Amino acid sequence: SRELLCIVVLVSAVRQFCYDSIGCFSDSKPWAGAAIRPLKILPWSPEKVGTRLLLYTNKNPNNFQILLASDPSTIEASNFQIAKKTRFVIHGFIDKGDESWLVDMCKNVFEVEEVNYICVDWKRGSQTTYTQAANNVRVVGAQVAQMLAMLKGSDGRAAEEVTRLVSVQRCN
């Protein structure tokens, strides 16, 4: 009698979620399924990550104003000044964007320059497992990019001019 050899091939389909304003996210390489990221985890939705963009300026160094990357009127109604540099600070894993160290950093910056200072708070998305938070920060990055694109288009200025005025800094 013949023996039948069966080979079972498990095909793992790439999953992808898309969000109108910030694009698509997949669980394909390099984000998952690689030796350094073996787990296939997708980032949470923007609503679940709960990113908040908290604006501090020299006019409001103690109280933030909330900016929405999807709503230009929040910039117009704020103390944001297009002619000033804009600095972003984004906290890391398990931290919070409304912690005192961020406000203290902001106050120190205001002692030496007049800037728009945006604290990116994604505490709901960061206070989870490391693997999930590492994927959630992809959504945060897309939201910051969305805000930068909106800032480039505000006040009718040419994109090159606003790009020169906006600086993004990473702090550890």
Walkthrough of the structure:
With 172 residues, the chain is α+β, with helices and mostly antiparallel strands. The protein has a single domain (43-165), classed as 3-Layer(aba) Sandwich (Rossmann fold), CATH 3.40.50.1820. The protein is built from 6 helices and 6 strands, in the order E-E-H-E-E-H-E-H-E-H-H-H. It has helices spanning 46-49, 73-76, 100-112, 123-126, 130-153, 159-165; strands spanning 16-19, 23-26, 52-57, 60-67, 85-90, 115-121. Strand 5, helix 3 and strand 6 (115-121) form a beta-alpha-beta unit. It is found in: Secreted. Residues 16-162 form the Lipase domain. Belongs to the AB hydrolase superfamily. Lipase family. It catalyses: a triacylglycerol + H2O = a diacylglycerol + a fatty acid + H(+).
Largest β sheet strand count, sense and barrel closure = 4 strands, mixed
Question: What is the architecture at the second tier of CATH?
Answer: 3-Layer(aba) Sandwich
The CATH class designation is Alpha Beta
Distance between the termini: 67 Å
The residue ranges in which pLDDT falls below 50 over 5 or more consecutive positions are: 4-11, 155-172
Overall outline: globular
Helix content: 25-40%
Order of helices and strands: EEHEEHEHEHHH
Q: Kindly report the average pLDDT value.
A: 80
- Total number of distinct structural domains: 1
Query: How much strand?
Result: 15-25%
Which secondary-structure class do the elements indicate?
alpha+beta
Number of strands: 6
CATH fold descriptor? Rossmann fold
Number of helices: 6
Strand order of the largest sheet: 4-3-6-5
CATH superfamily: Alpha/Beta hydrolase fold, catalytic domain
Radius of gyration: 20 Å
